[in-house]
Amino acid sequence: MSRSVLVTGGNRGIGLAIARELAAAGDAVAVTYRSGEPPEGLFGVRCDVTSAADVDAAFGKAEAEHGPVEVVVSNAGMTRDTLLAMMKEETFTEVLDANLTGAYRVVKRATRNMLRMRRGRIVLISSVTALSGSAGQTNYAASKAGLIGFARSLARELGSRGITVNVVAPGFVDTDMTAVLEDSRKEEIRRNIPLGRFASPQEVARVVRFLTSDDAAYITGAVIPVDGGLGMGH
């Protein structure tokens, strides 16, 4: 049965791969995007997750097109990297607002109908950085680590209603974000990854598809690494 799905930040990179993976599995997928154009073949809704009004409007449009959202993937996010000694307070708070508070806005709106339906799948996209840390990314790492506590608390709140909440923590993925790295930096990173390569966006997307499927009905509050072993032990 086709489900109504919403993927935030679904117009490129990991988010687009997730949206296409779920659409290929038969779901009716809506994606949010902040700038540019919506991806071809998917229902796109312009939305800035730092705005509660935008989030509410995006859900309204997705619901009008596909029905009540049963699966939400909170993927939209941003980076503003710099060492803490030089980081302005607004640089710290704007990353938390987009990555962590943005997820709160999206998930809170999603649960409105999920609670009525007594079913739902929520997946938050975190990062290996959440648990291993990364110099120059104190704001990003804090926001992505916060998603884990948020998800696990929510899993306890919503489990009795048949709603699962899980986290996927990718490592380095072949996207526009990593494409700008110098070759020497890429090689340095690869040497620290046991599998010796970056992930493809599709490899992350397939894990998300599993977590939203019936096969994962008894998994909630989990953090699934897709990092080639980079964060092993955390």
Automatic annotation (TrEMBL):
GO biological process, one term: monocarboxylic acid metabolic process
Domain of life of the native organism: Bacteria
Keywords assigned: Oxidoreductase
Annotated Pfam families: adh_short_C2
Chain ranges of the Ketoreductase domain: 3-176
GO terms for MF: oxidoreductase activity
Keyword Lipoprotein carried by entry: no
Record InterPro entries: KR_dom, NAD(P)-bd_dom_sf, Sc_DH/Rdtase_CS, SDR, SDR_fam
SMART domains: PKS_KR
Homology family: Belongs to the short-chain dehydrogenases/reductases (SDR) family.
Record's protein name: 3-oxoacyl-[acyl-carrier-protein] reductase
